Each structure stands twice: as C-alpha cells, then as structure tokens.
Amino acid sequence: STSRMIFTDNMIRIDDGNDFSGYVLYNSKTKLISSVSHDDSTVFEVKRPTKAVPEYKENAFTANKKEDTKAPKIAGKTIWETHFKHGVKTCGTVNTVKGLYTKELAILQDYYKTMQLDASANVTKTPNEFQSGCYLNNFIYHLEDYYQHGFPIAMSREDGYIRLLKGIEEKATVNHNLFTIPAKYKHYSVSIN
C-alpha cells in the first residue's frame, strides 16, 4: 500500500494519501504520536517514555554501510546502502542519501526514536514468539538506526516489508488542517512510565 508523509517545521503526518482517512501525527516538540481513527472517532496517543531502555542482553546487531556505486546520484549526492544483521542473518537493508532533506529527516528520526522507546519500555510484554533477534533489533532496540545514515529512499526487512520513495513534492505552504485532531474524538493511551 502507498503511504504519504507530510512535514512541517516540527510535525509529520503519515497517511494513505487521502486527506479524509485515518492518519498518524507526530509532534517533535511534545514528543507525542497521535493515531487518529475516523472509523470509531478515537485518537490513540503515545507519549515518549521517560523510563530508561532496558539492556538487550544479546547484542549481536551490526550495521555495514557501503557506497552504492551502481546507483545514480540524487541531487548530486551519493546513495549509501546499509545492511543490518543479527549475527549472520540479514534483518534489513536501507538505502539512504546523506545531506538530503535534513530537517525532515530529523523529525523522522525523532518519531522513530519515540516508537523505539515505547516498544522497548514494553518489551517484557512482547510475546516470546515475536522475540527473535531481528524482531528485537528492528523494532525494539535499533529501530532508529535505519534513519541514522541519511534520508531513506528504499528499505526492506527480513519479514517481507518493503518501502520505496516514489516521489517528493515540495510546497511553500501546507494545509495546516491536516495537522489537527477533531475536537470531539475520544483520546486514550497506555501509561508505561
């Protein structure tokens, strides 16, 4: 499926490309993720945990970054390919461009840092069947690492997930109504601090 990301100075909206469907908002100032559902008029909120991330006892995760010499440059910049592994198993690959859309990348990194901290604070509640090395590294302990090497243009994971950047549209103005939450929606969250 296609998803769209719209950035402002301190926010990101992630949706399916339709202004009227459900969406996710992230505010980098408040460190709050809001998942808005029009189906049941609710907003699920995730506030960045302040609790320390528990240590991962089996830290066999590595990142091997190399220049993709076969790929064309983007905006005159080199594409880098990073392979993330747990032991010998490849957990994921990301192609990035360093120095491209740095402001937007910072918001994206912050969003995934909040997701990672929330997931790591709940790791003891993660069912054992999901606690494979790649799962723990991709979603709990190293999620943000996929965004540390530059703006992502392609990503794949061992679970079959693939994301490709299909286009970028730069606009001077953004409809700020896309970054609001309907006033009468019910808000809920899970406290983990």
Structure write-up:
This protein is α+β, with helices and mostly antiparallel strands and 193 residues long. Helices cover 15% and strands 33% of the residues. It is built from two helices and eleven strands, in the order E-E-E-E-E-E-E-E-H-H-E-E-E. The chain has a six-stranded mixed beta sheet, with helices on one face. A five-stranded antiparallel beta sheet has the order 6-7-8-9-10. The model has no long low-confidence stretch (mean pLDDT 88).
Order of helices and strands: EEEEEEEEHHEEE
Helical stretch count? Answer: 2
How many DSSP E strands?
11
First CA to last CA: what distance?
34 Å
Percent range for β-strand residues:
25-35%
Helix content: 10-25%
As a whole number of angstroms, the C-alpha radius of gyration is 18 Å
The spatial strand order of the largest sheet comes to 1-2-3-4-5-11
Helix and strand content put the structural class at alpha+beta
Which oligomeric state applies?
A: single chain
Summarize the structure.
The protein has 193 residues and is of the alpha+beta class. It has 2 helices and 11 strands.
Layout of helices and strands:
Layout: E1 4-7, E2 11-15, E3 23-27, E4 32-37, E5 42-47, E6 61-67, E7 79-86, E8 89-97, H1 102-121, H2 133-141, E9 151-157, E10 162-164, E11 186-189
Parallel strand pairs: 5-11
Antiparallel strand pairs: 1-2, 2-3, 3-4, 4-5, 6-7, 7-8, 8-9, 9-10
What features would you highlight for this structure?
193 residues; alpha+beta; 6-stranded mixed beta sheet; 5-stranded antiparallel beta sheet; 11 strands; 33% strand; globular
